[in-house]
């Protein structure tokens, strides 16, 4: 072959891939986004194309393997600030690489003879796709950064005198049969001097099944006890109250302990970043006969922001719930949440559904019941898809309204436990107001401890079979029929207790 023929043949081989329409070249380049490297093969860049395809398949396979077989490891990485930085860098590199592959693929495939219109259309489409890839990469990086900020700000290093030592390398269920978390709703509004914990609740989680029992304490409990070995027991041997004071002592209520004890006895339990929470963990644990492992404190003023970030919650409203109002000052509410099934509440209304008490019969107990239903509604609303879609807003809300002593290194195993809670049963432990605290002045804490112990660790009773009688049944032993009455919702089953049963609380 003469040199001139060889040159023509070489040019023909080089221009072969470009013997297609501009639309065809654009389509191949765009399809190459799904499997980077395929457009290079079409352009006869065989070695480079094969390498990119192998790398792409390895990345796809690795992602599938991690998602299906190593989910706990992925969760652990997503809760580690160092790993999150590497993820952000990797995502940025991946996005940039994808854009480079797309642009170079189209440049190699587009016809040399394409007119200005075809070139302009191709450039516009490629530019739009590159912009979409850039936005997606930036959004992913922002989500990872929001996650890192949440982990470092909420679960960073904190000092606590009541936090247990739990290994992060072993399943929580192998170390604890139950995990007890104190849930605090803190009200530090402008009309309050200091912070009051109007909501005090314990979530006791069976670490094997995820079944969770919620135990609510009334805000006006007095004489809250302390364990015998605690420094606070020496100061208040008969509980938190003033034996020489008046019958009703609001400054010695349960909801005043968070602010008053640290103020009266600073550092009594030792160095702590949240003395009030440590005090409540010790006292509530003694009152209920439980070891409280961690606390999660939610600022009620910012609670609405979290509900908004989740897109609202759905609850059943059985009676009008006041929005605002003040019983003591005789200020009526501005409006009422009207009864009805499956009511969709925004953040503000969800807050008042959990807090409203003006003129409500058995106000504190009714509010506790609605708060448990609010917790249940949030758990149901926090689906993986919903959390992922709204994650940045949820993370920002969490930074502002949540305090906790849960350590950063325990987040991964607790998230795994939380997945069990998501699909498990949530129940209520009724502390029996009529027997144990007809008022808050001198509650029967021993009786409450017995109820909690039986609810969390029920004793199975064995029944002795009765001897069957061969005598014919007498009329005196015949079963009597009784008229059917409407069954009341089971207070222990939240699905029943939070169902739509119109009528006042009682």
UniProtKB/TrEMBL annotation:
Keyword Flavoprotein: no
Segments passing through the bilayer: 21-42, 48-68, 83-101, 121-141
Residue ranges the record marks as coiled coil: none
Pfam families on file: LytR_cpsA_psr
UniProt feature, compositional bias: Polar residues: 471-484
Matches recorded under InterPro entries: LytR/CpsA/Psr_CW_biosynth (IPR050922), LytR_CpsA_psr (IPR004474)
Domain Cell envelope-related transcriptional attenuator: 196-382
Keyword Membrane: yes
Keyword list, A-Z: Membrane, Transmembrane, Transmembrane helix
Chain intervals for the UniProt region annotation (Disordered): 462-506
Family listed: Belongs to the LytR/CpsA/Psr (LCP) family.
Protein name: LCP family protein
Species this chain originates from: Kribbella sp. HUAS MG21
């Amino acid at each position: 072959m003469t040199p001139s023929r060889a040159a023509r043949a070489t040019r023909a081989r080089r221009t072969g891939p470009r013997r297609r329409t501009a639309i065809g070249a654009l389509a191949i380049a765009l399809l190459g986004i799904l499997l980077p490297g395929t457009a290079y093969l079409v352009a006869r860049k065989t070695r480079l194309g094969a390498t990119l395809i192998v790398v792409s398949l390895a990345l796809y396979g690795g992602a599938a393997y991690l998602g299906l077989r190593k989910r706990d490891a992925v969760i652990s990485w997503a809760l580690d600030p160092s790993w999150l930085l590497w993820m952000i860098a990797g995502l940025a590199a991946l996005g940039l690489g994808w854009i480079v592959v797309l642009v170079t693929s189209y440049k190699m495939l587009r016809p040399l003879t394409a007119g200005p219109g075809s070139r302009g259309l191709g450039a516009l489409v490629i530019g739009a796709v590159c912009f979409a890839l850039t936005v997606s990469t930036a959004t992913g990086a922002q989500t990872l950064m929001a996650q890192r900020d949440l982990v470092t700000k909420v679960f960073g290093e904190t000092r606590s005198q009541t936090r247990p030592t739990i290994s992060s390398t072993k399943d929580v269920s192998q170390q604890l049969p139950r995990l007890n978390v104190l849930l605090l709703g803190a009200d530090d509004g402008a009309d309050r001097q200091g912070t009051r914990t109007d909501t005090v609740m314990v979530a006791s989680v069976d670490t094997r099944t995820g079944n969770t029992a919620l135990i609510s304490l009334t805000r006006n409990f007095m004489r809250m006890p302390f364990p015998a070995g605690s420094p606070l027991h020496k100061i208040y041997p008969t509980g938190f109250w003033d034996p020489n004071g008046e019958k009703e002592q609001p400054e010695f209520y349960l909801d005043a302990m968070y602010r008053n004890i640290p103020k009266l006895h600073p550092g009594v339990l030792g160095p702590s970043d949240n003395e009030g929470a440590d005090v409540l963990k010790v006292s509530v644990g003694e009152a209920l006969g439980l070891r409280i492992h961690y606390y999660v404190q939610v600022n009620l003023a910012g609670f609405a922001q979290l509900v908004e970030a989740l897109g609202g919650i759905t609850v059943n409203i059985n009676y009008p719930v006041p929005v605002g109002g003040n019983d003591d000052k005789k200020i009526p509410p501005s409006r009422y949440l009207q009864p009805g099934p499956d009511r969709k509440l925004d953040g503000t209304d969800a807050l008042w559904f959990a807090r409203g008490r003006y003129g409500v019969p058995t106000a504190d107990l009714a509010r506790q019941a609605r708060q448990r239903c609010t917790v249940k509604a949030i758990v149901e609303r926090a689906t993986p898809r919903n959390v992922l879609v709204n994650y940045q807003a949820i993370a920002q809300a969490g930074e502002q309204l949540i305090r906790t002593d849960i350590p950063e290194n325990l987040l991964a195993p607790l998230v795994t436990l939380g997945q069990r809670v998501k699909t498990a049963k949530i129940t209520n432990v009724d502390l029996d107001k009529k027997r144990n605290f007809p008022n808050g002045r001198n509650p029967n804490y021993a009786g409450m401890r017995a109820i909690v112990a039986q609810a969390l660790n029920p004793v199975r009773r064995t029944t002795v079979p009765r001897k069957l009688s061969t005598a014919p049944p007498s009329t005196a032993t015949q079963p009597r029929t009784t008229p059917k009455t409407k069954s009341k919702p089971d207070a222990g089953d939240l699905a029943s207790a939070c169902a739509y049963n119109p009528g006042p609380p009682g």
